[in-house]
Q: What sequence folds into this?
């Protein structure tokens, strides 16, 4: 059996950390199984869905390295949904109901007041043809409910284990609104059938939809796919992530300069039994992926942890992985430069500042003028290598008597303009004698 999964966002906004986790888990599983990922745009809400959001979703996924075999849009598939509706009407599984939202709310309140669960009472099933004709003559338009079979629905959730839901405790779900538009439930099932989806992997917030959807698959003559509901993300404060939190939008993380592999590594390892660690390729994440590793508890998405992971990842990235982006930033220096500075970067763009330290112009900070001038006088001739710094700093120590911080700090400030940074033994050969000499004399170079 070829595994076919889908990621089904609504193009009513950009992707955020929570959605991307769903996308990634689907992608990793498909890769692992040699299967295919379908990108399904759930754009039945014509008012809120936009082309710009659809593009943005593609862009965000591509940035993360998530590839899909095929893309479909629900807005182009209404004929399929209409056909499914006809089947359900014919088999008596879809019935018209005429209650207004206010009437339904009133029923709900009455049930709750009597200590009963607020389940739809199926009053509409008792309407005669005359009753319906009368309601329609008053201008009422029906919405359409799916008649649930009142039995226990069981599925082996890939993440949560055996799940039981008593369908008698659920209201018959509305599939079509009074204005003729579809709610998410039916189009999703029809598409899953039509596209041959073998595994539905989605967030826990959809567990409540699952029992009615399983009955829908069956009512449409199909075998339900395997289903897995992963844990959701909460913020560092333990609160559910809000879709409106722009700082967690993928485009925001990208604009902040985070690495796609840091975001992917983070999204794929938080809330699992694997340690949160940087992975330098998606294939490494594919190799790690197992449903059983997903925790049942909410996963904590902590921006600071992600940023630390980004720094760790940069530290581990080989030159080949960044060479193009460095040159796009106008940074040269080759592999030696990358190895010198990568351990000091929070984001890749920070390399620009270190490139200015290496290539100039940089205004030195002179803390101890005498020491710097003495140091300039004993600068060795080039060629320089990693041995130059220990030999030269020993010569400065001998010439001035300064040692420890009193020796190293003024030299670092003069050469780099900063108190902290990459090791000077790596930086010095990159800075070169002319520039080092000028800076020690207090000149911008
Ligand atoms: N469009 C739905 C959502 O984003 C898809 C849910 C599903 O995967 O079935 O929540």
A:
């Amino acid at each position: 059996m070829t595994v076919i999964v889908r990621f089904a966002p609504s193009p009513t906004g950009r992707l955020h950390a929570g959605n991307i986790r769903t996308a990634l888990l689907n992608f990793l599983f498909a890769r692992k199984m040699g299967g295919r990922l379908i990108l399904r745009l759930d754009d039945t809400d014509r008012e809120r869905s936009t082309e710009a959001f659809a593009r943005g979703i593609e862009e965000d996924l591509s940035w993360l390295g998530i590839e899909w075999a095929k893309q479909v849009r629900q807005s182009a598939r209404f004929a399929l949904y209409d056909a499914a509706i006809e089947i359900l009407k014919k088999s008596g599984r879809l019935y018209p109901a005429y209650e207004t939202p206010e009437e339904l709310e009133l029923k709900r309140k009455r049930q709750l007041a009597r200590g009963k669960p607020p389940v739809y009472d199926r009053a509409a099933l008792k309407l005669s043809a005359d009753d319906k004709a009368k309601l329609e003559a008053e201008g009422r338009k029906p919405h359409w409910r799916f008649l649930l079979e009142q039995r226990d629905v069981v599925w082996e959730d890939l993440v949560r284990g055996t799940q039981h839901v008593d369908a008698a405790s659920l209201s018959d779900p509305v599939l079509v609104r009074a204005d003729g538009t579809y709610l998410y439930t039916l189009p999703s099932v029809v598409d899953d059938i039509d596209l041959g989806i073998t595994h539905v992997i989605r967030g826990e917030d959809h567990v409540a939809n699952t029992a009615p959807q399983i009955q829908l698959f069956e009512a449409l003559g199909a075998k339900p796919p395997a289903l897995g509901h992963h844990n959701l993300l909460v913020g560092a404060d333990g609160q559910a992530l809000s879709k409106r939190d722009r700082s967690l939008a993928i485009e925001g993380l990208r604009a902040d300069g985070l690495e796609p592999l840091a975001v992917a590594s983070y999204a794929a390892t938080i809330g699992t039994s694997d340690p949160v660690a940087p992975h330098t390729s998606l294939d490494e994440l594919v190799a790690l992926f197992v449903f059983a590793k997903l925790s049942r508890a909410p996963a904590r998405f902590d921006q600071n942890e992600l940023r630390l992971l980004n720094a760790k990842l940069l530290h581990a990235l080989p030159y080949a992985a960044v060479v193009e982006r460095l040159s796009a930033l106008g940074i040269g220096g080759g592999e030696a430069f990358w190895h010198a500075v990568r351990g000091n970067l929070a984001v890749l763009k920070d390399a620009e500042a270190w490139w200015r330290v290496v290539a100039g112009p940089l205004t030195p900070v002179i803390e101890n003028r005498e020491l710097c001038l003495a140091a300039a006088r004993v600068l060795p001739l080039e060629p320089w290598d990693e041995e130059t710094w220990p030999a030269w700093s020993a010569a400065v120590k001998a010439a001035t008597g300064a040692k420890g911080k009193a020796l190293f700090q003024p030299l670092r400030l003069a050469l780099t303009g900063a108190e902290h940074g990459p090791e000077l033994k790596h930086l010095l050969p990159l800075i070169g004698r002319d520039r080092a000499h000028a800076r020690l004399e207090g000149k911008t170079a």
Observations:
- Residues 369-440 form a domain with the Arc Repressor Mutant, subunit A fold (CATH 1.10.10.350).
- The chain has five domains: 4-79+186-234, 88-176, 236-313, 319-359, 369-440.
